[in-house]
Amino acid sequence: MILGITGGIASGKTTVAQAFQALGAVVVCADVLAREIVCPGTKALQEIAECFGCQVLREDGTLNRQLMAEMVFNDDQARMALNGITHPAIAALARTRLREAEQGGAPLVIYDAPLLYEVGADREVDKVLVVKVGAEVQLARLMARDGINRQQALARVAAQMPQEEKVARADFVIDNSGSAKETQVQVRSLMERLSPAAGAPKLSEIAE
């Protein structure tokens, strides 16, 4: 079984994915794939350089991610052009990695993808888990994580698909507003529910 994990910014998606990984799941992370597809020598990086100019490349041939982000931040056309290059490449690599994980006999495969719904990747998974978080908790974590003020944090949250919409479309929801222990309990409970469907032994059958 492939379980897609998504949620809003600073909701703790990666933390939840890592908790599943600790219980035996294999995790494929879209953010990691996004870096892989722009490594030197890749088709995506070549297309980006052709579209935006060689100034987006560092001397060692790697992508200048900070400059790229600045170029597309307030330019919808530039951002759409970049997404048109990167999103298909990420999707293709994700399908390969997810298929490899399934064929490798993983009890549960996790696809950790912040833009799961936005790019239609929910069609590539069996079920979707949304990690939600209280609004004030989200803002506090985002400000602490990225070193930004409240207004900047609010803008970043507003730029995303509303959390309520993601929750409404989800098959499962984990509330990550509380302590790490509380989140772990929810992860273990869901893993118990999904293990039989994934062909894995129940957690009670696995030694602590």
General description of the model:
The structure is a single chain. The protein has 208 residues and is an alpha/beta fold. It has 2 domains: 1-25 and 108-196, P-loop containing nucleotide triphosphate hydrolases (Rossmann fold), CATH 3.40.50.300; 39-106. The protein has helices at 13-22, 30-36, 43-52, 65-73, 76-103, 135-146, 150-158, 163-169, 180-198; strands at 2-7, 26-29, 109-112, 127-132, 172-175. Strands 2-3-1-4-5 form a 5-stranded parallel sheet, sandwiched between helices. Helix 6 packs across helix 7. It is globular and about 50 Å long.
Key descriptive features of the protein:
12% strand; 5-stranded parallel beta sheet; alpha/beta; single chain; 208 residues; disordered C terminus; 53% helix; 2 domains; Rossmann fold
Compile the SSE list and pairings.
Elements: E1 2-7, H1 13-22, E2 26-29, H2 30-36, H3 43-52, H4 65-73, H5 76-103, E3 109-112, E4 127-132, H6 135-146, H7 150-158, H8 163-169, E5 172-175, H9 180-198
Parallel strand pairs: 1-3, 1-4, 2-3, 4-5
CATH class membership of the largest domain? Alpha Beta
Give the biggest beta sheet: 5 strands, parallel
**Helix count, DSSP H or I runs of 4 or more residues:** 9
Globally, the shape reads globular
SSE topology string: EHEHHHHEEHHHEH
